[in-house]
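Annotated sample (chain length 383).
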Amino acid sequence: MQPPPPRPDENVRHGPLTGLRVVEFAGLGPGPFCGMLLSDAGADVIRIDRPGGRAGPHDVTQRGRRSIALDLKQPAAIEACLTLLKTADATFEGFRPGVMERLGLGPDAALTRNPKLVYGRMTGWGQSGPLALRAGHDINYIALSGALHAIGTPERPIPPLNLVGDYGGGAMFLAFGLLAAIFHARETGRGQVIDAAMTDGAASLMSMFYGFHGGGQWRDVRRSNFLDGGAPFYDVYECADGRWLSLGPLEPQFFAALCEALDLGAPSQDNTAALRDAIAAAIARETRDHWETRLSTLDVCAAPVLSLDEAPRHPHNRARETFVERDGVTQPAPAPRFSATPGHIQGPPPNAGDHNDQGLRDWGFPAEAIQALRDQKALIDPA
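Output written by the structure step:
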């Protein structure tokens, strides 16, 4: 891992979204990740936090924002939020349907103040439908989309962390929706509401597989297809030291090169138990490091399965500075990369209210208005 890059001035944003102003209503999971993506790319993200929240360097997805702690039970806090939204390009929240409306911060109230505002709503089930008001988590949302059924062993589905629902189907679709709608608002002067449901996003991520299934190229049975571990040439294999190697030579020329490297001769590229057994036996004869070295110069679509401790130390990740260290915490660097306007980690994860004065002042609140919010118990400073 490379040394950390110089920290930017946290009062100056860096990245292609510099100048974009976003209000984030603090939540869990996909909301913070969406805020991190926008901040890493340069957006000025003001997060409305509940008073008393604490963050540490390990709260990676909360990095780069400025925090204002407002007690949303106080009318003055609601008015302060609406004032912030009046000059924002976008806002997003992750509460159940109806919560923001009951607070007086729903889309109608917000767009009345700012007709160009883009209002993002992040939920699991969506703003409508029979399940809209029910509780759930990533595992439930991807179960409903067909994604969970497709991942695992023949005996049972296996949750793929919370990558498919919360982050892939949730946060990234929300970020895409916000930016698309901001582009539209700047062209037309009209804002709109983004209904980002994790069930919808996870289903969209399955588009290729629904296409394969509809075309008769995908069996609706786990580990019976060429991309779900059902093919011997697209799977992981245990090495002599108990560690694992990933193989993916789908194309015939890559498969032939792998068979030559493993001394397997020239077997047919068929989905057979005999081929799987032959590959497994060959891989099991040597350590993972041996195979990484042996295969590193060959186009055989192979890579070691690295742990969270190992990945930041891999030479490729070190060369690309894929991971950085910030305040003693190793974490992924901003992605993707921009040639002219590189993103940065804009600052550490804030405690609730760390930027009460600076954040409000930079967004147009005069000193007397900030003090009035304190006097009305609407703005709460960190303990």
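Annotation: The chain is about 35% helix and 15% strand.
Annotation: The longest helix spans residues 163-188.
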